[in-house]
Design goal:
This is Phosphatase. InterPro entries: Phosphatase_SCO2771. It contains 9 helices and 8 strands. It is globular. The two termini are 17 Å apart. The chain is of the alpha/beta class.
């Protein structure tokens, strides 16, 4: 898909993205050190060195694998983005054909959530059941992940679970506690777990830790889901800048929806 590759470069979704080498390297080091906020609720199955994390990120994202370089610029390989989108599209096509039960969540209320909203609408139209457990339930201890002094609660917008502050604002979050609350609510009510989780950040990590089938997006400075994929616990992780202007994700949604409605 040369047109999509070109678009990814032009929109800075891949290619020479704005995420810096400092951020990529620092977060890889924090993940290797086991800092909770960088694990997304998906603790790795083994100890990973910084060099090993960077090697996986080079293979799956396209960043520089050099463990000696911690500053400057870095990149996401758009060909790797398209390859991962192809695998995500096939999984969504399968979900639509099977009319699966699907749970969708995003820690990016002002970014890649645009894709989540489009996917929910398409899957629902295809006959899938979009789950909305634990709506309104508080889920994060204050300040645990993102430095806030107040708890968050689950709020669904267009069938997508997000983090809300007292019902008046949506928040960016890395916390896995929202997904844990959703899965616990399904268990309490005796409902089966979802067949598929379409998510990012801690929502995706906690679902993968629970053994669910997860497809996700992640930026070049978020190694947890890529490591999870390397360990066979996340089905698909698409490398992309996950927090640019929402309308820029329109062609991504369109590409995925071709698979859903085919």
């Amino acid at each position: 898909m040369p047109e999509l590759v070109s678009y990814l470069r032009e929109a800075l979704l891949a290619g020479d993205v704005e995420t810096t080498r400092d951020s990529n390297y620092g977060n890889a080091a924090a993940f290797a050190d086991g800092h909770e906020g960088y694990l997304f609720g998906l603790a790795p199955l083994k100890t990973w060195t910084v060099a090993q994390v960077l090697s996986v990120m080079a293979e799956r994202v396209g960043i520089d694998p050099d463990p000696e370089r911690s500053t400057g610029v870095d990149r996401i390989d758009p060909d790797k983005t398209v390859a991962a989108l192809d695998r995500m599209r096939e999984r969504l096509r399968l979900a639509a054909r099977r009319k699966e039960r699907v749970l969708v969540a995003s820690g990016h209320p002002a970014g890649v959530v645009e894709v989540h909203l489009a996917v929910v609408a398409a899957l629902r139209a295809a006959g899938c059941e979009i789950l909305t457990p634990a709506a309104g339930e508080p889920f994060e201890r204050p300040g645990r992940y993102d430095g806030r002094e107040f708890p968050l609660a689950l709020r669904y917008v267009g069938g997508v679970a997000m983090a809300a502050e007292r019902g008046i604002a949506l928040w960016h979050t890395h916390s896995p506690d929202g997904m844990r609350a959703m899965l616990a609510d399904l268990e309490r009510r005796g409902e089966p777990l979802p067949d598929l989780v379409f998510a990012d950040h801690g929502f995706a990590g906690a679902a993968a830790a629970a053994g669910l089938d997860v497809v996700s997006f992640a930026d070049s400075n978020d190694p947890a889901l890529f490591i999870g994929e390397a360990e066979g616990r996340v089905s698909v992780t698409v490398p992309i800048d996950d927090n640019v202007q929402p309308h820029l994700y329109g062609p991504i949604s369109a590409y995925l929806l071709e698979g859903i409605v085919a």
